[in-house]
Amino acid sequence: MTPSTTGSTMTAAPARDLTVYFDGACPVCSKEIAYYRDQAGAQSCEWIDASSCDESTLGPGLTRQAALARFHVRRPDGSLTSGMAGFAALWQVLPKTAGLGRVAAIPPMPFLLDQAYRIFLLVRPLWRRKAQPVVTALPWPAAIVKELRSDHAGEVGAVQIYRGILAVSRNPELRAFAQHHLATEQAHLLTIESHLPAAHHSRLLSAWRIAGWLTGALPAVFGARHVYATVAAVESFVNQHYADQIKLIDELLKTAASQTPSDSERARLVILRDDLERCRLDELQHREEALNAGAANGFFVNAWASLVGRGSAGAVALARRI
Question: Is-above-0.70 flag for pTM?
Answer without folding.
Answer: no
